[in-house]
Amino acid sequence: MFVYADNAATTAMSKAAVDAMLPALHDLYGNPGSLHQKGREANLALMASRRTMAECLGARPEEIYFTSCGTESDNWAITEGARLGAAAGKRHIISDAIEHHAVLHTLARLEKNGFEVTYLPVHENGVVRLEELAAAIRPDTCLVTIMFSNNEIGTLQPIREIGALCREKGILFHTDAVQAVGHVPIDVEKDNIDMLSLSGHKFHAPKGVGALYCRKGIKLQNFIEGGAQERDKRGGTEAIPGILAMAAALKDCCDHMEESMAKVTAMRDKLTEGLRKIPYSHCNGDPDHKAPGIVSFCFEGIEGESLLLRLDMAGICASSGSACTSGSLDPSHVLLALGLPHEIAHGSLRLSLCESNTMEQVDYMLEQIPRVVKELREMSPVWQHMMENAEDPYKSAER
Amino acid sequence: MAMEYSEKVMEHFAHPHNVGVIEDANGVGEVGNAKCGDIMKMYLKINDDEIIEDVKFQTFGCASAIATSSIATDMIKGKPVTEALTLTNKAVVEALDGLPAVKIHCSVLAEQAVKAAVADYYKNKGIPCDSCLCEHCASGGCGCGEEEHDQ
Is A15-255 CATH 3.40.630.10? Predict the structure, then answer.
């Protein structure tokens, strides 16, 4: 059996996205900036896509800026939030410890340029506490950037409440919603969001296209100098095929949100319950505040890359936050922020599901994962040391 | 970041040779650090002629850590102890048809594990062994920072 359980890394394109993209690849080759009929045709399609994106997010079309990816949107929003703050003499930013590197590295650059950043802790459940945010706010705080849904452990932050607090204090609020858009309901008005970053390929659009929502009235400066595209703010001829596909994909997700969430949540819960039965396993994140599709576990005594590659041999595509898979010496900063020790964080596994996964695939994963974990433990000196002072659950199960 | 492993690495990772424990081993070495994500434990059964009759390993670590342990045991099995001491991480890398640059430390760990096990054997016999410490460790370059031989 083949199981693609890495939808938080990227998704397959949906039929809606492909259907929207194909005509754009064939016939809709005009430049939306051209005055002739081919240009007007492309421009009409672009405008329709912008309207669709806005409707899906509860925004106005003129508040949607198309970009190349979620990372670009994050860079733009945070850099601009900081610049606007500095212009008013405010140079303090609040974020949290488990943000994506697109946010963390942008903040690190700002820190080098004289900004001060407070990184809120997320505690063992991976959720920011509102009272800690309130306590961190200073008179010179200009920007709060907190992600909607975490890419590794799937925790959902209390975005609406964070947004309300920021609005009350007159602080700009940006959220990296790359893992949330298309998966959970979002309404930028009700959720009190000033800026929101999204990426198409996380919800069945192709790679290479994203968007930034920026509330009207926030005076964004140009991110890419050039032509008059994106309200003069971001030069570069619009990626029409990708944009059309992204709008169609998002509309498709939003039209089926309720049923998809129910289906994916049921699969996630079964998978979680099954994996909890593996001895010395830890389920990461907060079960009460969790994105529908993300399952994150740590298995003691084994290392994540081995687990990942042995699962790959069994036809299961998954992901891990171990140091070996990240290419650095440390395991994922997200798992460490939960307070997990390095040696346990090395044994992490992330399975991310979408609506095209099936219960049969969940059952198959529940056969294969415990088998692979057991095999790797059997050759692990760490597991052997652990079992010197404990009863080996595998041996006692055999008796 | 996708990692390209050679077929040889994947073969040894999927079906590692000489996995396990030797209960009556007369040389045991454990190197690495769980914090860094790699630990290798090597068991040697060395006979009176100083030939490595049997060798087994246990490894906690990534695919290349398992593969380097596996091939290192193949390379020293049936060989005189003195020859095992000449095993280099470079030879391990070559035998695996190469390793990604970020995984070279796994081959260093395999060399260290063999040397630590031989050192243990000599220690048990009360014989000093100058060549039991690998060059990397002698020069202070052990894997991920503060990692040291556990012997």
Answer: no
For A22, A87, A235, B45, the CA distances from A219, given in Å and listed in that order, are 36, 12, 17, 74
* Residues of chain B with C-beta less than 8 angstroms from the C-beta of A383: 60
Q: Which residues of A touch B (CB under 8 A)?
A: 301-303, 305-306, 309-310, 313, 322-327, 329, 331, 341-343, 346, 378-384
Residues written for chain A? 399
Cβ–Cβ gap A379/B19 under 8 Å: yes
Domains of chain B, with CATH numbers? 7-138 (3.90.1010.10)
Delimiting residues of CATH 3.40.640.10 domain(s) in chain A: 15-255
Tokens of B143: 């894997």
Question: Hunting for tokens 């990604």 — which residue is that?
Answer: B100
pLDDT in tens, B20-40: 999 999 999 999 988 888 999
Answer yes or no: are the C-beta atoms of B117 and B149 closer than 8 Å.
Answer: no
Intra-chain end-to-end CA distance of chain B, in Å: 35
- Show residues of chain A in contact with B30, CB under 8 Å: 381
CATH architecture classification, A257-398: Alpha-Beta Complex (3.90)
Global ipTM: 0.89
Helix B63-76 / helix B104-125 crossing angle, nearest 10 deg? 40
Q: Is the pLDDT of residue B148 over 50?
A: no
Model pTM score: 0.93
User: Are residues A79 and A106 in contact, defined by beta-carbon separation less than 8 angstroms?
Assistant: yes
